[in-house]
Amino acid sequence: MNKILLLHGALGSDHQTQKMYESLRMDHDVIRMEFQGHGNKASDDCAFDLDILADQLLEFIREHDLNGVDIFGYSMGGYVATIAAGKQPEIIGKIITLGTKWHWDPESTDAEISKLDPDIISDKVPNFANHLSMQHGESNWKALLQATADMMIGLGKQGRALVDEDLNNITTPFLVLRGENDNMVSREESIWATECLGSAEYREVTAQPHPLEKLDPDTVRPIINEFLNR
User: Fold this and answer.
1) Residue 87 Cα distances to 51, 73, 90, 121, 200, angstroms
2) Angle at 32 between CA 30 and CA 35, to 5 degrees
3) CB burial class (10 A; 0-12, 13-18, 19+) of residue 18?
4) What does residue 202 show for φ and ψ, rounded to 5 degrees?
5) What Cα–Cα distance (Å) separates residue 26 from each residue in 4, 20, 139?
6) Closest Cα partner for 4 from 22, 27, 29, 21?
7) CA-wise closest residue to 204 among 23, 55, 215
8) How far apart are CA 113 and CA 186, in angstroms?
9) What pLDDT tens digit does each residue of the chain (230 aa) get?
10) What is the predicted pLDDT for the residue at 162?
11) Most distant CA pair in the chain: distance in Å?
12) Residue 171 φ then ψ, to 5°
C-alpha cells in the first residue's frame, strides 16, 4: 500500500483527522502528524507561522523516511503542504487539499480573529473551550489561539502567503477540494489556486461545509483514491 500523510487544520490535532484516518487506512498506509503548538505538541510558548510549519513537515518526512509520501492537508494543513512542495518537491508525492483558504485580506482576517478571543469563547461557547482544552491542554489552548491569530494577522497583511509565481513554479500533482457549502473558502480562490498550480485539478464536495469534522470521509475516499492511483 502507498503511504499518505494526514495534516490537520488550524486549532486541530490528530483528533480532527480521525475519521479520515479510519476511512483511508482501508486502502493506504496512513500516517498523521501534529504541528508545533497543537495536540501532543502543544505548549504555552508556541509562536509559529506557515513557513515554520512547512519546515516542520519537511523534517517529519525526512526523519520518518517518508520520501515520496502523498499528503492530504485540511485547511491550514493544505497550505503548509503547498509551501513545503515549493521548498522541496523531490520528497513529496501528490497533494490533496480540502478547505484551504488561498486568499486573505484584512476583512476576512478580522472576521476569523474575532472568533479566537479565549475569554469570549470561555464565556459564550464553553463546550468549544472544553474541546480545545482537551485537545491541546488546559494551560496551552489559549496560547495556541493567540499564535493562530498572529499568523492570520500576518496573512491578512500579505493578502496570501503564496502568490501566482510561487504556485506556477510548483510541479507537484494537486487535487484541490472544496466543500460546496464552505462559507470560509470561496470557489473563486480555489479555482485561482488550481489554475496557478502547474499540475492540478479542482473538485467540489457536494453539500460539505468547512469543518472537517462534518465530512463523511467515504464521500471523498473514492475521489482521493482515483487521484492517487492514476
Assistant:
1) 10, 16, 9, 36, 18
2) 160
3) middle
4) -120, 135
5) 12, 10, 36
6) 29
7) 215
8) 18
9) 789 999 999 999 999 999 999 999 999 999 999 998 898 877 767 778 899 999 999 999 999 999 999 999 999 999 999 999 999 999 999 999 999 999 888 777 887 888 888 888 888 888 988 998 888 988 888 999 898 888 888 887 776 667 778 898 899 999 999 999 999 999 999 999 999 998 899 999 999 999 999 999 999 999 999 999 98
10) 72
11) 49
12) -105, 0
Q: What are the structural domains of the chain? A: 3-104+161-229 (3.40.50.1820)
What residues contact residue 122 under an 8 Å CB cut-off, 6+ apart? 129
Contact 70, 228 (CB under 8 A): yes
CB 105, CB 152: distance < 8 Å: no
The pLDDT score that the predictor gives to residue 161 is: 66
Chain position carrying cell 513537515: 57
Facing residues of 33 across strands?
Answer: 7
pTM above 0.90, yes or no: yes
Helix (H, G, I), strand (E, B) or coil at 204: strand
- Residue carrying the nine cell digits 485561482: 192
Distance CA 188, CA 204 (A): 12
Q: State the sign of the Cα–Cα–Cα–Cα dihedral 97, 98, 102, 104.
A: negative
Cell numbers standing for residue 202: 479542482
pLDDT score recorded for residue 24: 96
- Whose cell is 501528490? That residue is 94
> How many residues in total does the chain contain?
230
